[in-house]
Write a structure and sequence with these properties.
Layout (H helix, E strand, L loop, with lengths): L23 H17 L3 E2 L5 E3 L1 H4 L4 H4 L4 E3 L5 E4 L4 H10 L8 E5 L2 E3 L11 E10 L4 H16 L8 E7 H11 L6 H13 L6 H10 L4 H10 L4 H12 L6 E3 L13 E7 L8 E5 L3 H5 L8 E7 H10 L12 E4 L6 H13 L4 E2 L7 H10 L4 E6 L3 E6 L5 E5 L3 H6 L1
Parallel strand pairs: 1-5, 8-9, 13-14, 13-15
Antiparallel strand pairs: 2-4, 3-4, 5-7, 6-7, 7-12, 8-10, 10-11, 11-12, 15-16, 16-17
Bound molecules: histidyl-adenosine monophosphate (HAM).
The site of histidyl-adenosine monophosphate has 24 residues, from strand 7, strand 11, strand 12 and helix 12.
Length: 418
Amino acid sequence: MERLPGFRDFYPEPVPSRDAGWSFDARQFIFGKWREAARRYGFREYDGPPLEPLELFTTKSGAEIVGQLYNFVDKGERAVALRPEMTPTLARMVAAHERAYKKPIKWFALPQLFRYERQQKGRLREHFQFNADILGENDVAADAELIALLIDTLRSFGLTAEDFVIRLSSRNAWQEFYERGVRNAECGAEGAYQFYQIIDKLERTPPEESQKKLAALGFSLEDVNGFIASGTPTAELASIIANLAARGLGDFVKVDYHVIRGLAYYTGPVFEAFDRKGEFRAIAGGGRYDNLVKLISGGKVNLSALGFGMGDVVLLELLSARGLLPQFDATVDVFVLIEDEAVRPQSLKLIQDLRATGHVVDYPLTPAKPDKQFKRAQELKAGFTARVEGAATVKIRNLKTREEVVMAAADAPGHIAR
Ligand code: HAM
């Protein structure tokens, strides 16, 4: 039986096949860094259901993501979908209990998301995403804070300003450009969404194709490229850059109007993180979405919001290409050797005491030859072996220094801790 295309198995290291580089250890490593960075910035963790009413996504995220939904009708005749992104769930959760939380709300999550995409480099049908969002703050100081978190998260993996850059742009600048140039004002929101989609894919589409699509809305590729080339920061973007520069993070950002974001709900400053060499797809993306909470709450709650999502797939590809993934080893503190089955009861007591004091302990579950046991201790990279000798004494051997000591069983946990 094969697994589904676009899904991953997470084996403990060493993984049977290194080609994808995936392992549960690598995943835990990435999650650990994500959580640490979020907590340093004072974000609190939340989660929501992986399955949501289909409608939560169909009206809010835009046609592109709707086309990638894993959706079905459940046994209660409800139209449901696996979450393709976290932001609508967050907006729903915050709107439901908005009064219970002081503003600004700073929350993060590490959801697994599902998108029925064409499988390619950096794109799978499930991925984990680090989401960090701030709700209830209009000032661009919040945008700068969020981008600083994004930068520091990537830096915590050992990546530097030579490895990645945050391309900063503005949905409102593009909105103005669109409104100035659109031939038929009746195109309305639908026309604007189509326009954003064309800009979002500009770098990946042949120019003639973009030209044709833009012309249908009354734009020329030349005007669009001219606007991108001007790269003049809006007042908001200038303020975000100054804020980041004050922290010493100025080298990590640049204004780049190629970025516009594919999702429909963004309203203000938007950004994407890319590797400098341009080998990979976006590592992360986000921005302001000041109308989404209002839309999802049917007008009941109005709360400004901004956030980003960083996927684990591109991040791992980048870390492994830059040699920044550590070696993941199974390690135990103590391997208890049971060479004489007569002392198995005393050995089990010793194992229990060692574990109770927080040590990682392993031992042979069934009778085994002494050399096999020792080999196993070495394979597990054990720091010590311990062997019960006599009624209440234990021989402990430090496998690095080869030093051996005999002591009362009760003293063993303290000795190993030291
Ligand atoms: P997004 O740009 O769709 O934004 O996804 C963010 C990141 O998730 C991407 O830059 C990419 O690294 C990763 N990603 C997306 N789709 C896939 C896939 N099929 N396979 C592997 N990785 C993928 C959002 O999802 C927004 N909800 C982020 C956000 C949070 N905006 C505001 N708050």
